[in-house]
Specification:
It is built from 8 helices and 12 strands. The protein is of the alpha+beta class. A 5-stranded antiparallel β-sheet has the order 2-1-5-4-3.
């Protein structure tokens, strides 16, 4: 099964193409080596033959036929010329001198020739000879050559070695490509099997790691991290759905109870007006919850960047402090603005106002009665920082990341007004503006800090 998938995989086809291209290159290299080596050796033999031919021709010119015959007899008797072939024949093809019995059949009358010729009466076929023939002044014909059997054997060995190496390379490359492709297909099948298991049973499955720390393990790790993130998001969706159901159940139950009571009670204008007023208030709370959800989704989709301008964060924070001053006085909370007078940021003024307002509202609601809330704005190198600090009970460190989830509320905040969407809106606004969110212990209380990047160059003022 795995072998069939391996042979059908695109990786294997690409490997075959690579093997073919590599094989052609190697074959071309060996062909060039063979041709250049054989040509070099043959050229050396040819130069020796040409030199010997010239020497014999000079002897014939100076000493005539008898002098040439004597020189040929001397050459054939000399062991240092054992690989040389000489033949001098007269006009009637009678052998006059040399170590061949007759003029080789098919040998050219003039120029280069190759032939196999017997060198003794006991041998029917002799070695391969390459020589040069020439017709002399009196009609005599001279052949001078060399035994190139060693050259022929040498080139044959090169040819055989080249073919063997090429075949070995193809075999090894094919085995390696099948092995690599099989491993690749195996890892892909492992991922596919996990994907099918996830589709059947849920997000609790993970892709197994082999501990090789290679690229496939890194892919598996990233996919597992992605599955963890998806599982977390699905859990958050479920938690949000549960929280929506929980938060809507109370106002809807109250509205139903009032309407049922009014249905069975006698009509009265004052009673009906109070009923209608309470029901409208509960409906406004429900509609406000859905409006907050819609607004957070709109901000998270980055659909509001068209309103970005350079604004003074101090002015926005000052408006928020002025708005909540009366609410702070009711709890005897001291609300004040601190920091520099001009802190420019690039952003949506209305969204920044809402984000700061949510932070100040939370600080007043959940801070210490009679405590203090401080909003601080100041410039830092490369950006701006806005912080809201209170001296209340604070938030446990392990809860810092959870408070930004929709509808998430701390246990001690369950019975205070709110729907758990305020900090979700703050997180969405911060993300839209590229700001970094930090929660820290104010010892006592909570310090909420937003760090904004430097204002964009060329942004319009607001």
């Amino acid at each position: 099964m795995l072998l069939a998938k391996t042979l059908k995989s695109s990786t294997f086809r690409l490997a075959l193409i690579a093997i073919g291209a590599f094989g052609l290159i190697v074959s071309a290299i060996f062909a060039y080596v063979y041709w250049s080596t054989a040509s070099y050796v043959r050229n050396r033999a040819d130069r020796a033959v040409v030199a010997e031919q010239a020497s014999l021709r000079d002897t014939y010119t100076r000493s005539g036929r008898d002098g040439l015959m004597a020189l040929i007899d001397q050459r054939t008797a000399d062991k240092s010329f054992v690989d040389h072939v000489y033949l001098l024949v007269g006009p009637g093809s009678a052998v006059l001198a040399g170590n061949l019995k007759q003029w080789p059949p098919g040998a050219a009358e003039h120029g280069w020739t190759e032939f196999r010729a017997p060198v003794s009466s006991s041998a029917s076929v002799g070695p391969l000879v390459r020589g040069m023939t020439e017709t002399l002044a009196r009609g005599d014909r001279l052949l001078v050559g060399r035994d190139i059997s060693d050259l022929d054997g040498f080139t044959a060995q090169i040819r055989a070695a080249g073919l063997a190496v090429i075949v070995l390379i193809f075999v090894l490359a094919a085995v390696a490509s099948i092995g690599v492709t099989r491993r690749t297909v195996g890892r892909i099948e492992s991922i596919n099997a996990t994907s099918r298991a996830i589709m059947r049973s849920g997000l609790d499955q993970r892709i197994p790691l082999r501990g090789s720390h290679d690229e496939w393990d890194r892919v598996a790790e990233n996919l597992n991290l992605m599955l963890d993130r998806i599982e977390t998001l699905m859990g958050e969706v479920k938690q949000a759905s549960d929280n929506v159901a929980h938060d809507l159940r109370t106002p809807l139950t109250r509205m139903r109870g009032r309407l049922e009571k009014a249905y069975h009670a006698p009509r009265g204008s004052e009673t009906d007006a109070a009923l209608i007023g309470d029901t409208i208030a509960d409906l406004d709370a429900v509609l406000g919850m859905f409006a907050s959800i819609t607004r957070i989704s709109e901000i998270e989709s980055r659909a509001r960047k068209g309103a970005f301008r350079t604004v003074n964060l101090v002015e926005v924070a000052g408006e928020v402090v002025e708005l909540y001053d009366a609410a702070a006085e009711q709890d005897a909370t001291r609300l004040r603005l601190a920091g520099e007078a001009d802190v420019p940021v690039t952003g949506d003024r209305d969204l920044l106002f809402d984000a700061i307002a949510n932070l100040v509202d939370n600080a007043i609601k959940h801070g210490r009665a009679g405590g203090r809330v401080t909003v601080t704005c100041h410039n830092v190198e490369g950006g701006a920082v806005m912080s809201v600090a209170d001296d209340g009970p604070g938030i446990p460190a392990e809860q810092h990341d959870r408070v930004f989830k929709r509808f998430y509320r701390l246990e001690q905040s369950r019975y205070t007004p709110g729907n758990g969407l305020g900090l979700s809106l703050v997180a969405a606004v911060a993300h839209l503006h590229g700001a970094r969110i930090e929660l820290a212990d104010n010892a006592p209380g909570l310090l909420f800090r937003l760090s904004f990047p430097a204002p964009a160059v060329g942004a319009q003022g607001g």
